[in-house]
Design a protein that fits this description.
Blueprint: H1 3-10, H2 24-28, H3 32-35, E1 38-44, E2 50-56, H4 76-89, H5 91-102, E3 108-111, H6 115-128, H7 130-144, E4 146-154, E5 159-166, E6 171-175, E7 183-187, H8 191-198, H9 202-208, H10 213-220, E8 225-226, E9 232-236, H11 254-273, E10 278-283, H12 295-307, E11 322-327, H13 337-350, H14 355-359, H15 369-402, E12 405-408, E13 411-414, E14 418-421, H16 429-441, H17 447-453, H18 458-484, H19 487-491
Antiparallel strand pairs: 1-2, 3-14, 4-5, 4-9, 6-7, 7-8, 10-11, 12-13
Length: about 550
């Protein structure tokens, strides 16, 4: 027996490939002699041989040093690369992350009691495209586990000019041991920024003129760029409350995704080897009197089979010593359907999403109500976190700079707009709307709440209702006018134009709000006289004597004024 074999049976053999691997016994706190306990028995056989049996104790278990765990990344840049790769290549991961980052914040609105302040912030949100920024923040939050948001301040307009997200691979966070909330965030310059700050190329020089000289000085000295807490925000998904950096939800399904990829690699190999079955041609027979073909006959059959490969109606006529078989992989490949289904279930669970949401299979809305309610509560928590970040880091600093204050109970308070979200329908919408409508009829819920549940704006709906009332009144008047028109007038109408007011033969057009003239004609040039009823009574008409016969009918001039 070799020395290595004897050392192995004694439990003291070390394989050359084990160098550099962690000592599990030392990690677990066991000594080598105590860990590897052996029991040996020897016996002598009839032929003088001997047997030796060695029993080795079980290896201690540690979740930190499993084979698959030893393959997981440890540095943050590689971890982020893994998360991005799974997001870009796995359809389940991509759809789950997109759902988490878009559905809870699909519609964002702000509200403020002071309408001037509300109008100011609406203009700022449109300028920085806040809704798109929030969706990008949510996507990075669930994909990477943390997001560094930098808001650039404009001194002229005294508001945020733009908001963008830093690459977490180049961000360092330092936290105080005594006060973890007091962190210092620094940006490590990448190769492109270093080239911009040091390259004399005119193209880089033009870009360098737009960069803050303090940043250029830090880059030239090879230092990290400190970021002001007034501008930078760090949103992170914590695994533990004392963690300095965030952890993605994709991390919990890394091992399942690894196993899923291994199964897929096996399927690739099987697909390559199972394109066509193997053709086996047997020539001759066994036995003492069997036919044993010569090499010349084997070569002739090889040529014959090659000629038959692409002939659709090829026929072979020969003796019974030839056997042609097709050998395929049917029944020889391990069925991995159950294993893959279990892996997919683990992936759905780790990504915190019910299977019925993505695939429309399995549980219906009625049976998945509990899972959907849990998912809605998680989304509400995420909404609250985003709303608090917007109000404290985006709106409040600008309100303070602009001087938006209000006096409440003789106390000066900062005016900060509130964030409002649309209603999430993660359950049967018909039954929910029917229930809310019943509460509206009982005056227990306002109509405004019903409109928000449907994702509608109450102000817009009131304007639309008024417009429809005006159109209905116009239609009723037009129907009334059509009944007063003659046949010739009806035939002359254009359906694309408004129906005119009907006119009589002596009717005249009047101004809006002025009554038409009295019947019987007269008056002063058709101008309607105002109604003086109830005012000063009319003067009685004076009696004028008739002129004598033969007198002139010309008017008598008035007497001269004395």
């Amino acid at each position: 027996m070799s020395a290595e074999r004897q050392a192995y049976l004694r439990g003291s053999y070390e394989h050359p490939e084990d160098n550099g691997r962690p000592n599990l016994a030392a990690v677990a706190g066991f000594a080598g002699s105590e860990l590897r306990k052996t029991a040996s028995t020897q016996s002598t056989g009839r032929l003088g041989g001997s047997t030796n049996t060695s029993h080795v104790g079980p290896e201690p278990y540690s979740p930190l040093f499993l084979t698959q765990n030893m393959q997981l990344p440890r540095d943050r840049i590689t971890m982020n690369a893994w998360n991005r790769a799974f997001f870009e290549t796995n359809p389940i991961v991509r759809n789950a992350i997109n759902l988490h980052s878009t559905y809870p914040i699909s519609k964002l609105a702000i509200h403020c009691d002071d309408k001037n302040v509300e109008r100011f912030f609406l203009d700022m949100c449109e300028r920085i495209d806040l809704e798109t920024v929030v969706q990008q923040v949510a996507s990075e939050y669930f994909k990477i586990g943390e997001v560094f948001v930098y808001a650039s301040f404009d001194e002229n307009s005294r508001m945020w000019d733009q908001i963008y997200i830093h690459n977490p691979d180049y961000v360092q966070v330092r936290a105080s041991p005594t006060s973890p909330k007091n962190t210092t965030i620094m940006l490590m310059p990448d190769n492109e920024l270093k080239k911009i700050c040091s390259d004399p190329n005119p193209e880089y020089a033009r870009i360098r003129e737009q960069i803050d000289p303090k940043i250029i000085a830090h880059v030239i000295r090879g230092e990290a760029i400190p970021l002001d807490n007034f501008n930078i925000s760090h949103l992170k998904m914590l695994s533990s409350p004392y963690d300095v950096r965030g952890t993605s939800i994709i991390t919990s399904v890394w091992k399942d995704l690894m196993l899923y990829d291994k199964f897929r690699e096996c399927k690739y190999i099987q697909a390559d080897s199972m394109v066509n079955p193997i053709t086996v041609v047997k020539l001759g027979t066994d036995g003492p009197e069997g036919l044993y073909p010569r090499q010349e006959e084997i070569d002739n059959w090889r040529t014959l089979m090659e000629q038959a490969q692409f002939d659709k109606d090829f026929k072979i006529i020969t003796h019974n010593a030839v056997d042609i078989q097709r050998v395929g992989s049917s029944g020889h490949v391990m069925d991995t359907a159950a294993d893959i289904n279990q892996i997919l279930e683990n992936i759905y669970t780790g990504l915190m999403i019910p299977k019925s949401i993505l695939t429309q299979e399995g549980a219906s809305y009625a049976t998945a109500s509990v899972a959907l309610d849990v998912m809605r509560q998680r989304y509400n928590s995420f909404r609250t976190m985003i709303a608090n970040w917007l109000e404290r880091k985006i709106f409040a600093p600008i309100s303070e700079v602009q001087g938006f204050y209000d006096i409440v109970d003789k106390e000066k308070r900062l005016i900060v707009p509130k964030v409002e979200w649309n209603h999430m329908t993660l359950y049967d919408l018909d039954s929910y709307i029917a229930h809310v409508s019943t509460l509206v009829e009982k005056n227990r819920v306002s109509v405004r709440t019903l409109d928000r549940s449907l994702g509608l704006s109450r102000k817009n709906e009131i304007s639309n209702i008024r417009q429809e009332m005006i159109e209905a009144a116009i239609l009723a008047k037009e129907q009334e006018n059509l009944g007063k028109m003659s046949l010739s007038q009806l035939k002359s109408l254009n359906p694309a134009e408004a129906i005119p007011e009907p006119t009589d033969g002596n009717a005249t057009a009047t101004l809006p709000g002025v009554p038409p003239p009295a019947a019987g004609g007269g008056g002063m040039g058709g101008i309607p006289m105002p109604d003086l009823s109830g005012g000063i009574p009319p003067m009685p008409a004076a009696s004028v004597p008739e002129p004598p016969r033969g007198a002139s009918s010309e008017p008598v001039p008035p007497p001269p004024m004395g």
